[in-house]
Every structure is written in structure tokens, then in C-alpha cells.
């Protein structure tokens, strides 16, 4: 049976190449690695990517429209259903210099997204998908063209993984801390290098395999 998995995320999952505006191909970014690994292991999985550069959990970007991750999420769930799993990997952009957020507040943004997913107006009889909250790698010292945008972010995001794990516990979702398998790129301190996409994709596929039994 085909299982559809939605990845709802930002530029870390979109596959931006650090310090460029270029994008890794699907087979090289982690959602593609994730899909290939699961299919090769005997799961019949289709990954649906909904990854937007600059997406926050529940806040707007003063310079770019559509970056509030809560806006339209219910409809994303509706038009991609039936879904077996939604992977939420957001939070990094909550710590851009346009916001003075700390880890607890960002995690509450993810909690709101979980509630939206579960209350989405899907068709009768379709399943409410399982949810896997992924804590993004901890922000390192921002480098290069994005350093001004993320000034001080490596301090504001302190403790995000622990706060997201607590949200996952309270809301009975699954949880994975990306920092346990890879750090952020040393090139820009925010995104992932190609080899890190490979590592994260395989690790998340192993987690998803347990969920999609």
C-alpha cells in the first residue's frame, strides 16, 4: 500500500546549498534520500515536499509574504490527503533578527502547527496522519551573506530541541533531534551540506520506518 509522507519545512529541507541560491537535486536533499531509503527497504512511500525558504512556524516575515507556516497549512493537509505521516522541521527562521524569540516560544509555534494538522478538514474516513517533529540542527555562528539576517541566532535558539521534545511528549507526536546525527553546515552555520542531507535523510527514514509499520 502506498504511504504518502508530507515534509512541511523550510530551506534546510528545500535543499539550499550554503552561501548560494542554488538547490540540491531531489535525490541529494534529505527528503529524496528519505524516500529512496524507505522504498529500498520495502516500504512503498511517496514523499510530498512543501518546503519554503524563510518559513517560520507561526510568524510573518516583514520582507517576504507567505512565511507564516500556520497560514494555509490546513488546506495543505486537505489537498494532499490521505497522508500517513507529516514531518515538521521548522524553527530555524523563528530566530532571524527580525524576531526576539527564544526556544520555548518557537516550540509553541510548532505545537500550534500540530493542532492545525489534526483539525484539518480532510474527507470522512481519511486518517489523521501521524506527526514527526524534527528539531533542526542547532544554529552555529552564522557566516556569509545570511550572517546579518541571523545575527545572534545561535544564542536565541538555545534549548530548542528540548522544548520541541517536550511539545512532542505533551501532544503525543513522534520526535527526532537532527543534532544527534549532524550539525549545521560550517559554511554558513544554518543549512546543510550535501553529505549532511544524506546522513539526515537516512536517519529520519529509520525513524519513519518504525512509525509506518
Automatic annotation (TrEMBL):
Pfam families: Lipase_GDSL_2
Domain of life: Eukaryota
SGNH hydrolase-type esterase domain location: 26-194
Signal peptide: none
Protein name: SGNH hydrolase-type esterase domain-containing protein
Organism listed in the record: Symbiodinium necroappetens
Amino acid at each position: 500500500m502506498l504511504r504518502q509522507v508530507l515534509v512541511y519545512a523550510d530551506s534546510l529541507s528545500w535543499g539550499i546549498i550554503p552561501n548560494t541560491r542554488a538547490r540540491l537535486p531531489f535525490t541529494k536533499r534529505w527528503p529524496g534520500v528519505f524516500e529512496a531509503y524507505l522504498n529500498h527497504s520495502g516500504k512503498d512511500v511517496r514523499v510530498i515536499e512543501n518546503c519554503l525558504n524563510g518559513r517560520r512556524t507561526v510568524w510573518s516575515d516583514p520582507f517576504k509574504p507567505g512565511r507564516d507556516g500556520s497560514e494555509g497549512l490546513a488546506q495543505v493537509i486537505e489537498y494532499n490527503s490521505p497522508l500517513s505521516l507529516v514531518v515538521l522541521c521548522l524553527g530555524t527562521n523563528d530566530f532571524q533578527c527580525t524576531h526576539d524569540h527564544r526556544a520555548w516560544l518557537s516550540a509553541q509555534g510548532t505545537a500550534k502547527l500540530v493542532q492545525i494538522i489534526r483539525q484539518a478538514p480532510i474527507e470522512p474516513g481519511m486518517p489523521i496522519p501521524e506527526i514527526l517533529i524534527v528539531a533542526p540542527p542547532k544554529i552555529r555562528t552564522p557566516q556569509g551573506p545570511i550572517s546579518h539576517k541571523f545575527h545572534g541566532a545561535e544564542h536565541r535558539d538555545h534549548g530548542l530541541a528540548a522544548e520541541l521534545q517536550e511539545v512532542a511528549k505533551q501532544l503525543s507526536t513522534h520526535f527526532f533531534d537532527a543534532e544527534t546525527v549532524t550539525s549545521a553546515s560550517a559554511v554558513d552555520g544554518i543549512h546543510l551540506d550535501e553529505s549532511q542531507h544524506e546522513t539526515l535523510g537516512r536517519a529520519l527514514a529509520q525513524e519513519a520506518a518504525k512509525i509506518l509499520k
